[in-house]
UniProtKB/TrEMBL annotation:
Residues 1-50 form the BHLH domain. This is BHLH domain-containing protein. It comes from the Eukaryota. Belongs to the bHLH protein family. InterPro entries: bHLH_dom, HLH_DNA-bd_sf, PRE. GO terms for biological process: regulation of DNA-templated transcription; regulation of growth. The keyword Mitochondrion does not apply. Gene3D superfamilies: Helix-loop-helix DNA-binding domain. It comes from Zingiber officinale.
């Protein structure tokens, strides 16, 4: 083999390695973006579930206060926490 033939092969290998590195980098970036998107989606889902839980507890508390006597000491304490 001549040295120019080996030189071309080395250049081709270097070119392919550069392309492979760029591809791997792009795949890594896409994976990180997908991972970040998944974390964000799970966070949003959790916040929505907390909102539903707050709504449920608020409704239950309203029902309890409606059933309690208006002048009840317990109802007064609960109302003071809400203000």
């Amino acid at each position: 083999m001549s040295s120019s033939s080996a030189s071309v092969t080395d250049e081709q290998i270097n070119d392919l390695l550069s392309k492979l590195q760029a591809t791997v980098k792009n795949i890594y970036i896409l994976m990180m973006q997908a991972s970040a998107a998944k974390v964000l989606q799970e966070t949003c889902d959790y916040i929505r579930s907390l909102h539903r839980e707050v709504d449920d507890l608020s409704e239950r508390l309203s029902d309890l206060l409606a059933d309690a006597e208006v002048n009840s000491a317990q109802a007064a304490i609960i109302r003071s926490f809400l203000n």
